[in-house]
Specification:
Blueprint lengths: L9 E6 L5 H12 L6 E6 L10 H9 L14 H6 L2 E4 L2 H10 L7 E3 L17 H19 L3
Parallel strand pairs: 1-2, 1-3, 3-4
Helix pairs in contact: 1-5, 2-5
Length: 150
């Protein structure tokens, strides 16, 4: 993929706990950007650092030929948010929290589902397996729309 002038070099994807949605989006985006000079990472606003990826999330990724098995949760920090060229959040409440934490990030913070009508991507944690699969489908579509714009 060719980078456009002014394209982000660092993308941060944020959710709540950094064990389901944001590591999924990180894994899918990194895979789609294969070979591009873009650093992709994820973090959670309320993450318990060191928590492994949710097993149901990993199962859905594996079903699509991907893996985040080595992922451990990280808590989003103001420095990490400030260093990112593009910050993508799963829900409007995450976006609001990010912008409150680092006001200077407002112009480069968006919903991952921006190109799907600013759709929130619901948290599948603790729900049935089909919720994880639906979250994956929504994330995959959103990532593809972002990839086309990076």
């Amino acid at each position: 993929m060719k980078r456009n002038a002014g394209s982000p070099r660092r993308v941060l994807i944020v959710c709540t706990a950094n064990i389901c949605r944001s590591p999924t989006a990180e894994t899918v985006l990194r895979h789609r950007l294969d070979g591009a000079a873009v650093e992709v990472e994820s973090a959670g606003l309320a993450a318990l650092p060191g928590t492994p990826i949710d097993p149901r999330t990993e199962a859905v990724l594996a079903a699509h030929g991907l893996s985040a098995a080595g992922h451990v949760a990280r808590r989003a920090t103001p420095a990490q948010i400030a260093a990112a060229d593009l910050v993508l959040a799963m829900e409007q409440r995450h976006l609001s929290a990010l912008r409150a934490l680092v006001p200077s990030a407002r112009a480069r913070s968006f919903l991952l589902g921006r190109w799907q009508g600013n759709a929130d991507i619901p948290d599948p944690y603790g729900r049935a397996q089909d919720a994880y699969e639906e979250a994956y489908r929504m994330i995959e579509a959103a990532v593809e729309d972002w990839r086309a714009r990076l």
